[in-house]
Amino acid sequence: MNVIFRTGTRRERPSSLPGVSREVPQALLAKLKTSDAAANRKFAIADGALDAATTGPSWLSHPDVADVVQSCLLRGARELNYFDLFAHVVMPNHVHVLLEPKLPLQRLTRGIKGHSSQLANRILGRVGQPFWQDESFDHWGRRPSEVERIIQYIENNPVKAGLATNASAWPWSSASPLVAQAFLPVQFDRGKNSTG
Hints:
Radius of gyration: 16 Å
Structural class: alpha+beta
Shape: globular
Number of helices: 6
Helix content: 40-55%
Strand content: 5-15%
Number of domains: 1
Distance between the termini: 8 Å
């Protein structure tokens, strides 16, 4: 399952673009609302605007905060065994995660967001304030080819956003050699059909 967590407080959402906040420039939202493109394509365009991190909170650009969030994901997978983690990336204002849950998704997201927000807010001196948006965008990968595409999208997100020259250069990603070797022994089995 591909899950996207976004930083910031809940914002009004246009009905045709679920999960996309007002942090996306209003002119782009207006254009997308009238577009005939498929909903997933509209979301991808809006997500690209968020990748630029020109609006809204970018608390995850603080290295200690990014470390905290990545550590929460890795701990949830490795130590707590709550999910199998196939790919992740911590961007300046959102996080992409590809996982196979072993618990109900709502419980997982509540745990990840709750623990990471307490630690991140402590670092930022924002104790007791909202850190993550209430909702998350999730999508089940149904075919091995789709899961592969999602892994590539997640790991290349920092390159696409101009934050790194190549995927392995971004330290808050499953593409980072240190993270991949030390913390992510689970590999996607290309012969297994993920049906979620």
